[in-house]
Amino acid sequence: MDYKLAWNGRYLIAVPPQNTSWTCPACEYVLAENRQTQADFYCVGCGFEENADLVGAINILRVGHARCV
Ligand SMILES: [Zn+2]
């Protein structure tokens, strides 16, 4: 995957998965209780609600961007 991305002028950033499914993308509150079910995310800190897979993707993207700078 890394080789194919480099071929197309892109690159791969490995992101450790710790807390990416428990962190609120709105207020960055980290708590296992934020993950209400496998599919649903609800932040007990600020009330942010979203699909849990989308929240995980947002958090992974955020960590990846932070490693670029
Ligand atoms: Zn929150």
Q: What's this entry about, in short?
A:
By secondary structure, the protein is an alpha+beta fold. Helices cover 33% and strands 9% of the residues.
Question: Mind explaining what this structure looks like?
Answer:
This protein has 69 residues and is of the alpha+beta class. The chain has helices spanning 2-7, 52-68; strands at 40-42, 49-51. The protein has a two-stranded antiparallel ribbon. β1 and β2 form a beta hairpin. The longest helix is centred in the C-terminal third of the chain and has 17 residues, at 52-68. The model has no long low-confidence stretch (mean pLDDT 88). Bound molecules: zinc ion. Residues 24, 26-27, 29, 43, 45-46, 48 line the site of zinc ion (ZN).
Task: Set down the secondary structure blueprint.
Layout: H1 2-7, E1 40-42, E2 49-51, H2 52-68
Antiparallel strand pairs: 1-2
The structure holds zinc ion.
Task: List its salient traits.
69 residues, two-stranded antiparallel ribbon, 2 helices, binds zinc ion, elongated, alpha+beta, single chain
Number of contiguous helices? 2
Bound molecules: zinc ion
Query: C-alpha Rg, in Å?
Result: 14 Å
DSSP strand (E) fraction? 5-15%
The main β sheet shows up as:
2 strands, antiparallel
Low-pLDDT ranges:
none
Helix-strand makeup class: alpha+beta
Shape label: elongated
Indicate how many domains the architecture comprises.
Answer: 1
Report the span from N to C terminus. Answer: 22 Å
Helical amount: 25-40%
Q: How many β strands by DSSP?
A: 2
Average the pLDDT over all residues and give the rounded result: 88
List the secondary-structure elements in sequence, H or E. Answer: HEEH
